[in-house]
Amino acid sequence: MKTRIAIALLLLAALASAQTAPKLKMPPFTKAKLKNGVTVYLMEKHEVPLVSVAFLVKSGAVADPAGKEGVASLTASLLRKGTPTRTADQVSEQLDFLGATFGADASPDMSRGRAEFMKKDVGEGLDILSDLLQHPSFPEAEVTKLEAQRVDGIRAAKDRAGAVLDTYFYKYLYGNHPYGRPDGGDENSLKAITRGDVVAFHKAHYTPDNTIIAIAGDFSAAEMQKLLEAKFGGWTGKAVPAAAIPQPAAVMGKRLLLIDKPDSTQTYYAIGNVGVARTNPDRVYINVVNTLFGGRFTSMINSELRIKSGLTYGARSFFDMRKVPGAFAISTYTRNATTEKAIDLTLEVAKRLHEKGITQEELDSAKAYIKGQFPPSIETAGELANLLATLDYYGLDEREVNELYSRIDSMDLATSKRIIQQYFPLANLTFVVIGKASEIEPVVKKYAEKMDKKSISQPGF
Q: Which domain holds residue 66?
């Protein structure tokens, strides 16, 4: 009798646990198109009287003219520098008066921005936003000033070395592929860009059919749809063909680029290869394994290089998932004297991942970690608006959220073994090392069959 009661209690506890287990679900939203072709997402969230807007233009640094890398980035950053009816100062004053925010930038795949204002100011806020998107004036002085600031910023970043490691890595890994271009340009390309280039980029790419506007917050969807039609309905422009980004080929064998920084007391390095696209069907599984390998503080890479050996203050690995495969890389830094020890240990941990795989306990830990980390990343209206626009760009939908937990739960050890063998490179690797060549060249040349060399003082990447 006691046994039956105990079993019944256990069953009831299990049922209660299943019923109270957290569920992840995208809040309701609507999708529509304005008459001129702008794609619109509307998500009502009435918890706070705020309206958050995310806009996405489906052209980024990949669309920069050859030799003028940085145009997309400059265009996005200069949007708020005035229109025919508002000077840059007036834009700032009006935004400040409303307590509103506005910002924009560009990545390889896209240009994007965000704005936020109070519910009571939605009309004025959208009026400013529509003016900035449709009618930026790109004053000559502002273009020249920003270009100079960017060039100075690149020089300062090279002095820190670690701030430009990823840019050098992408250039060396991708070569002449569009993903090898520096998103924000370099010392040479920025100087070649004219105001006319910025104006031409905006005219060609900031068009209704090439734009997604996602809004989340305290509003009525029906009323917001009418308001958007009133504010953006007069926007015109030619259709923009989808960017044809070629599929990049993974590097075969091992090759290394040594970037000489004579005054450096530390060595910065990145090791990896071409990774996966944002729509890769194994993307959730890849994230689970990478979380264990180099995606959190207690990861294998960080534990070995920082926690156990003290060779660095931090080591990580990442998959940069883009329209077509972005990079997979392991990156960290160490003292000149411990360069060989650190790189050897990095490669040893990667080899151990392939040979030993992960345990069930580690797999369960990564699953729980991701489940805990993801929900806070889509808590705010701004985060949700940005997510809606991004999913649309990549041809994805709310299943990315609604089915995330079930995809994570479906992963087993056999799957993890396949993921490691298929996506985590070991035999074919690209190395980029920044440091004092006179001290570390004899050490690093052993890691690759082919070694290239350049100076960090050389313009460009």
A: 30-232
Residue 81, token pair as written in the block: 């520098």
Pairing relationship of beta strands 254-260 and 429-435 according to DSSP bridges: parallel
pLDDT per residue as tens digits for the range 196-239: 999 999 999 999 999 999 999 999 999 999 999 999 999 999 88
Q: Identify whether 237 is part of a domain.
A: no
pLDDT at residue 240, as a whole number: 87
Residue 336: other Cβ atoms inside 10 A:
15
Residues 136 and 269 in one domain: no
Instruction: Assess if residue 249 is contained within a domain.
Output: no
Give tens-digit pLDDT for 315-347.
999 999 999 999 999 999 999 999 999 999 999
**Integer Cα distance of 63 and 71 in angstroms:** 9
Longest dimension (CA), the chain: 87
State how far the Cα of 187 lies from the Cα of 459, in Å rounded to an integer: 6
- CATH number of the domain bearing residue 166: 3.30.830.10
Distance CA 265, CA 270 (A): 17
Clarify whether residues 265 and 364 are in a common domain. Answer: yes
Residue 12 within a domain = no
Helix 122-134 vs helix 88-98: angle between axes, to the nearest 10 degrees?
160
No. of H helices and E strands in the chain? 18, 14
Q: Are residues 185 and 262 in the same domain?
A: no
**DSSP H stretches of helix in 64-121:** 71-77, 88-98
Of 202, 232, 262, the last residue of a domain is 232
Query: Which of 232, 262, 278 is the endpoint of a domain?
Result: 232
Q: Are residues 190 and 296 in the same domain?
A: no
What Cα–Cα distance (Å) separates residue 414 from each residue in 245, 320, 323, 356? Answer: 33, 24, 28, 12
Place of tokens 């990774």: 275
* CA nearest to 336, candidates 227, 250, 261, 242: 261
Residue 238 forms part of a structural domain: no
Distances (CA, A) of 107 to 64, 70, 158, 391, 439: 11, 10, 20, 15, 36
